[in-house]
Predict the structure.
Amino acid sequence: MTIDLIIPAKDEEENIALTIESIESNLSLDYKIIVVNDHSSDRTADVVRRLAGKYSNIKLIDNDGRKGFGFSLKRGFSVADSDLAIPIMADLCDDIGTIYDMHAKILAGYDVVCGSRYMHGGMKKGGPLIQSFFSRFVGHSLKYLIRIPTSDVSNSFKCFKRRVIEAIDLSGKGFEVSMELGLKAYFAGFRITEVPTTWRGRYLGKSKFYLFKAAPDYLRLYVWAIYRKLINKIRPKY
């Protein structure tokens, strides 16, 4: 199965080459890389163009709409045409080796495979402690409350069959879109599982994720998911 690796990138000239070189050096599946330049004010696009001259499987596109991670990810999905799509962060925080485990689960019949930092064998290294607490709480509590089969639904590092992406209408503007996609796939009845992954805090540059700014959007999705599960339980079945 072919894979589109979608990398939204905003002002990541310090990291994007490391991320792409890591993929090219460590992944031997059939894939291409789609980098979505999100209104960068630095040399991110120039770095990707240089690498596209070295590797023929790199495609650079612009997020020509509103700026933001959610809009960039949706832009990447709109041009993805492979069997599978996997969002990857531009700052080298995701473990590329996990993609092999995701691929194996897809071949076993799953529609969505979540990279989980909080299941047995998973790990989160670095990053703000309050952010770690928040994502861990959201993941474990939603697994318990709505029975979604992953302990890390907020993690963007997931593998999707193409039909999942095509079936779901996303409204998220920022990083919460990753959680929205996982939740909507679950309620749409797609088969979901998880594999352990290791997340590492960025090596260079400044994070684009601001917890207190993003928290209301995550909270809205959290409440929506619990409400949706409750409604499904009490709705009469005929």
User: Anything to note?
Assistant: The mean pLDDT is 91. The first strand starts at residue 3 and ends at 9.
